[in-house]
Structure formats: C-alpha cells, structure tokens
Specification:
Elements lengths: L11 H12 L6 E6 L5 H13 L13 H8 L5 E4 L10 H11 L9 E5 L2 H4 L3 H12 L5 E8 L6 H4 L3 E4 L5 H10 L4 H10 L4 H9 L2 H14 L7 H13 L5 H19 L15 H7 L2 H19 L4 H12 L1
Parallel strand pairs: 1-4, 1-5, 2-3, 3-4
Helix pairs in contact: 4-6, 8-9, 9-10, 11-12, 11-13, 12-16, 13-14, 13-15, 15-16
Amino acid sequence: MLIPFQSIIGQEKAKHLLAISFQRQKMSHAYLFRGPAGVGKKTCAQAFAALINCAAPGNDEVCGHCPSCLKFHSGNFPDLLQLELQGTASSIKIDQIRELKKLLTYPPFEASFRVVLITDIHITMRRKEVTNSLLKILEEPPANTLFILTGDEAGDILPTILSRCQIISFYPLPYERVAQALMREKIDQDTAITLSAIAEGSLGRARLLYQEELLPLRREIIENLLSLAPDHPDTVESVFRLAEKAAGMKDNLEELLDLLTIWLRDVMLAHKGLSARVISSDLRACLPEACRKWDFPVLAEKLQRIDRARRQLLHNCNRTLVCEVLFFELL
C-alpha cells in the first residue's frame, strides 16, 4: 500500500528531520525510529521508503503515479525488505539474517535505494548471534541500502545498535488527533474519545482495543456490577457468565483489568467533583449510580482487589476462578 509521507498523523519533528535529510541527499545509512507502540513508526518507515524511491517527488511527497509508486501501491515493490517475527517465534531467526545478507550482496533490483525495515528491534533482536550478525551489516552497509529499525522507547536496545543508527524520536499523538482518526473509521464520537484517552495517544493501541471488543465487555461488566445485588438469586449465574467471558480474553485479560481500574478511578474523580477529568466518556451516564452505590473507601478497596487479581494471574492461577472471585468482590 502506498502511504503518502505527509499523511502520517502527527510526528511533525520526525517528518521534518527525514524530509530535510532527503532534500539534501544526506540520509543516514541506518535510522532507529524510537517511541511508544502504535504511534506510526512502521507506517512512517514505509512512507519514507516510498518517498525516497519516487521518480518525481514534489514538496516532500510521492507523485503517486510513477512505476515505483504504483508498485508500492500494489504491495509489489521488490526493494523493500521487511524483517519480522515468524509465527510464534520470540526473536528473529539467524536464518533470516543469513538470507538478508545473501540478498544484500546484489544491488537493488530497480530502485534508487533498497530499504530494509526491521520492526520492534527491542523484541526481535533477543538472540546474541542474531544481534551480532546484524551489527556486522550495519558496520559495513552495502551501497544504496537504507536500514530503518523501529523500537519501543522503553525497550532494551543494545548500545552497539544505538551507536550505529541515527535516532528519530516519535511521541504519543494528541488525543484529539487519535479520536478524529477513529471517527473517520466510523467509530462513534464517545467511543473514539474514550479510546484515545485510554490508549494515551497510541492510535495502534486504540484500534486494538476496538477490534478486540474490550469496551463492550467492560460496559457489560460494569452495568452488571451496578445492577446486581450480592443476595439476589441471579447474581451467581451472572457473575460466572461474566467471569467466563473475561477469562476468554486470554492475552487481553490484563488490558480488561486496566479498563476496570480506569473506570473505578473515574468514579473516584466524580466523587470529588472532578468529572471533567473522567476518561471513560462512553460511561458518563453510569457515574451517578456508581457514586451512590460505592463510597470512596469502598472504591479504594476495589482497586486493591484488582491489583491482587493481577498478581494471581502472574502466578498462572486459574483465570476463570480469579475472575469469579474478583467480580464477587467488586459487587
């Protein structure tokens, strides 16, 4: 897919630095795009690869109709090599690096620059032999080859890699820009505003939360917690059903607990008259009832229960049982 360089949301400083280096034809042989997950590092790398290979760029933008642009658009650009994890692997395999080395012995097929994109370097480069092999390539890069690595700002990246790359910093996106992007994808305004705040400026994380349908499950849990009474005959069955659903979220269960924590924090803010700082915009209508049902000390205790559940999950306790106990305690 052809991504216009100037269409990248936010990241004005990063785009400016890259555009200047392109205009002056003084690009580094290796860049490290470093910042939070989901803020556009990989997308920007792909867009920059298209820009520097466009036959007729103008105003730091691709033309969209030259042979290079058309091949980017169809996903058939031969000189963009992307190195990513294979299947359930926790690191790039040494065979992938060896294959890359073999390809780099030949000149680019047809482009001005061959671009090698290696994503999530803080994860993919965990094996020593893989890292050492990559370092040798970065020390003696082939002609007309540009490396772009992406990495989490909090990730552990070896100093030897950092020293061989020009670091381009990426930052969380303004919440309103994230919300606007989500609304363009047909997500309603309240949900978009909530997702942008919960994701803390990460469009990628906001999209993941939406795709995994975590907000609807969070709403269902909260509405049941507000309506159920501990001594009601239907309570046990409802709690068991919700616990089963929550446990079924698997890798997203911790994210769900984070959403419940944010909700309880919102109720605390409402208790203190600080509703303007509430994150869960889509659940504002539930705040008055929550404030009536739970006072401040009770809310603090519920937060402790969620923290305890997190610790239990880290010790591989039965997920469904942990959720059952937690939801009974949150009533």
